[in-house]
Amino acid sequence: MAGALLGNLRGAFIVAPWVGYLALADVALSLLLPVKLIAPNLVYNISSGIASSVWKWVQVIFERVNGANITISGDKLPKGESAIVIANHVTWADFYMIQALAVRAGMLGRCRWFAKIQLRVVPFLGWGLWAMGMPMVSRNWMRDQRELDRVFSGIVGRKWPTWLISFSEATRFTPQKYEETKVWCTQNDRPVPKHLLYPRTKGFITTVQHLRKAPHVKAVYDLTIAYQHGDEFHEAPNMWETLKLSDISSQHGYKFHVHARRFPLEELPHTDEELAKWLECRWVEKGEWLDRKKKEWSAC
Ligand SMILES: *[C@@H]1O[C@H](CO)[C@@H](O)[C@H](O)[C@H]1NC(C)=O
Ligand SMILES: *[C@@H]1O[C@H](CO)[C@@H](O)[C@H](O)[C@H]1NC(C)=O
């Protein structure tokens, strides 16, 4: 009891200054909104700087203060390169895995995530996400299409440097969802990826077809995220635990890994059907990779 209380207090103590800072960032971002009309590029740059400081702070809490050891493998991602980023979705902590790579590539402030529209009601955060220009999607295709047009026009028309990040499975991996994936894949004659849900192809195809018109967007990064806790694969700390637990890796025994692959955009196929197939291949390979990682972790 006392231990749990201390843990929560520790979490509150660590997080409170960041929430205060987020509130200030919200004010700054709001003041910039009217300036956007006359100096959109400048506002994008300043907003990116503010976003970078907000996210860097959370990253420092997770990695340095709370000792999460994120290991990285695969292709080295070039500094400052704009890209379409896709990843598997396990849990909230995925956010830190992707940011760990963005920090190294100097793109943290340029990350634009497809966020659920529901997040808009989260105090401070929702407003901040909106004011930073994060694409907010609802699964209502008409509404989403307007939002996508807005995001694509910034990247294509104004050449804004961006990592445009989406979780292709659209929802988190759960054993129950996995059963649904298996049924769906069997019915539709598709391969069942291991440890993953079958990816949604529509958003990916739309994104690639639009952003290949932007010469500065050079690649698709395919990220594979894996966790381990004790003997349990794909088990990660929840949101509050990532903020309150100390020595997450050394004491609590959590492992965090992200594997990156870089595909030049010009090498991707051109038709929608081929792009859907391309994404499916990535997911099958990703499943094989996760399976090897699971065996590797369970052996040690
Ligand atoms: C915004 O940042 C980019 C990249 O760092 C730079 O090339 C551009 O000149 C900046 N634009 C403005 C208006 O500050
Ligand atoms: C992080 O984990 C890797 C792989 O298990 C290990 O080699 C490395 O020493 C760890 N780093 C820290 C800071 O504990």
TrEMBL record:
The protein's superkingdom reads: Eukaryota
Identify the stretch annotated as signal peptide in this record: none
Note whether Plastid occurs among the keywords: no
Q: Which residues cross the membrane?
A: 12-33
Keyword annotations of the record: Acyltransferase, Membrane, Transferase, Transmembrane, Transmembrane helix
Q: Which GO terms describe its molecular function?
A: 1-acylglycerol-3-phosphate O-acyltransferase activity
- Name under which the protein is recorded: Phospholipid/glycerol acyltransferase domain-containing protein
Organism of provenance: Neoarthrinium moseri
